[in-house]
Write a structure and sequence with these properties.
five-stranded mixed sheet, 5 strands, alpha+beta, 36% strand, globular, 107 residues
Length: 107
Amino acid sequence: MFRLFKKKEKIKRELPPGTIRKEFHFEGNVQNIGFRFEVQSHAKPLGITGYAKNNDDGSVTAELQGTQKNINKVITYLQNIDRIQIDSMTEKELPLDCYDKDFSIIY
């Protein structure tokens, strides 16, 4: 029979040494101002994978996987955008995701 829809295969990637994964929770003026797009536009060029999503309470959650140096660059950039006001930010270490290969915005 015909296979019209091929199942996407998850391919395990070899991660560079020093790769970490962190979850960030941002509160403040972080929705309806392009916050998730800013995260994505600065994470992707640095090879950071993960996602950013809006939460029902007005906060944003982002998971970033890459080097600590590059993750810090993204966070520093976000903290210096005038239209964004981060009142509080929490972070926690997560296990690496060897199947993660891109950065996405979750709607």
